[in-house]
Amino acid sequence: MSQKSIRIIPLGGVEEIGKNLTVFEYEDDIIIVDCGTMFPSEDMPGVDLVLPDAAYLYKNADRIRGLFITHGHEDHIGAIPYILRNFVCPVYATELTKALIEFKLKEHMMDDKVKVTCVEPGDRVKAGCFTVEYIHTNHSFAGAAALAIHTPVGVIVHTGDFKIDFTPVDGGPCDLNRFAELGSKGVLALMSDSTNVLRPGYTMSEVTVGKSMEQYFNDAQGRKRIIIATFSSNIHRIQQIIDCAGRHDRKVCICGRSMTNICSIAVKIGKLNLPESMTVDVSNLKSVPPEKLVVITTGSQGEPMSGLSRMANDTHDRLKVGPNDMVIISATPIPGNEKMVSRTINSLCKKGCVVVYEDVHVSGHACKEELKLILSLTKPKYFIPVHGEYRHLMEHAMLAESLKIPHENVFIPAIGTVIELNKSKGKMKETVPSGEILVDGSGIGDVGNVVLRDRRLLAMDGLVIVIITMAAEEGVMLADPDVVSRGFVYMKESEVMISEVKRMVAEYVEGADLSDRDWNALKAGIKSMVHEYLWQQTKRSPMILPVIVEV
Ligand SMILES: [Zn+2]
Ligand SMILES: [Zn+2]
User: Fold this and answer.
1) Beta-bridge mates of residue 457
2) Ligand 1 centre and the CA of 482: distance in Å?
3) How many Å lie between the centroid of ligand 1 and the Cα of residue 529?
4) Where does the chain hold its CATH 3.60.15.10 domain(s)?
5) H helices of 351-465, where?
6) Known catalytic residue: 76?
């Protein structure tokens, strides 16, 4: 008799860092872990957000028993308001994560459709044949959790995003005991965070950031205003800054939309201690001497619309920076953001600010030795690296093999690949429909490859529109062709070339046989002729749009 298997299907979060979503399926029951978004890459002009393609879930909506969230970073919760439009299921998360999800749902006017239940480390939730247990870990998010998913074929441990911090700011160290306990009873599979697998050693404790922060506060004491940019969701980091400000008798101004939102949510649920008496509103900055002030803002990634970028570009309506400011960037650039960050740093330096970005950040993800520790404690039969680009997954797979997990028990998944496991064997199976869905404005999924190709073409070489006015009945041209262009050449300086295009088109239309009124053939002819001429003249290929106006 063949054994029944559990099917694990990552619909995002592998071969990429972002839009995490994993499906666990056993017979008639499905549970989901995380539901995140990703930022668009540079070849997606105009796109706001990227979601995982969850068509597989929509098709199996009646079998979904629950969505379990590991923590509240966007790559784990961002897609909830989009994907949960298409089916209803209970959502589980720890306290701060729950509050952030609810805030998001409210923004999308979905708060009465989706119910989020608060869970704590140690809690177990039954969902169909699964029981999902929350395990406390450390991460750059307060209340991050790993999951032990108890299934009919064994326990699957999913680390979520984690690191091991023995001296965290709050909440205690990662629950290594529980990982060890699960390991001693037998773990079927481990799915583990691969983000920092290329880094040797251990990730530093969050408290080290507080120590170097203290040093910089001493340097600025009595002389400079301090402006600190960091991730708005890193409540422990923000708490350390507030505590430091308190010790140095400085008031705190929280600045930037997402910073203000998350801080007020965290204060409300008691996860952030920011006494009212210490705060100054951004509209009231003049009431406090600059050297008695700390501004905490967004923009640690150089995002163009963020607080720090606007200060650097002099477009912030409340805050002007200059030689009396020390700016601390408490983050490292996420790969891809380096240029934007260095642009911001250069602008701030030009204004005379002291800019600090060394030793004021630690990662939220485990390095190699911590990953080895989790592998050794859980002793899984199968290993699946997740949360990484291919090179990270590959390295993590090799790390597992170096700890004596047999090669055939290690699976490097691609998006949509089904991994089927039971106690005696595991294998990669078919692929289910999967990929990415692009969000642009209020449109979800209506921007696809064709639209993106056009946008790229327009962005590179611009657009040339050729307008021809025809008498419909007679099939003759009524006026000289007109040419309009955008983003191609500066028309005023290219008059000769544009007149030549008009002349060629007129000649072409006059010479064409239009007895059958085949405008499409006429357009195609004009398009290739103009394309060839413009290429010869400029070595550019703008998009050419012939428009025939019948009157
Ligand atoms: Zn995270
Ligand atoms: Zn993540």
Assistant:
1) none
2) 55
3) 53
4) 6-202+364-434
5) 368-378, 390-402, 449-461
6) no
Question: What is the model's pTM?
Answer: 0.90
C-alpha closest to that of 230 among 149, 303, 319:
303
Query: In this model, does residue 2 exceed pLDDT 90?
Result: no
Q: What pLDDT digit, counting tens, does each position of 133-164 carry?
A: 999 999 999 999 999 999 999 999 999 999 99
Q: Quick check: 310 pLDDT over 50?
A: yes
Residue 115 has pLDDT above 50, yes or no: yes
In 161-304, alpha helices (H): 176-185, 207-220, 235-247, 257-268
Match 């965070």 to its residue by tokens: 193
Q: How far is the CA of 232 from the centre of ligand 2 (A)?
A: 15
Catalytic residue list contains 193: yes
Q: Which CATH number fits domain 449-550: 3.10.20.580, 3.90.1720.10, 3.40.50.300, 3.40.50.150?
A: 3.10.20.580
Percent of the chain at pLDDT above 90? 84
Look up the CATH architecture of domain 207-356.
Answer: 3-Layer(aba) Sandwich (3.40)
Distance 219 CA to ligand 2 centre (A): 34
Q: Which fold has domain 6-202+364-434?
A: Metallo-beta-lactamase; Chain A (3.60.15)
Q: How far, in Å, CA of 87 to CA of 346, rounded?
A: 47
Catalytic residue among 361, 365, 387, 392: 365
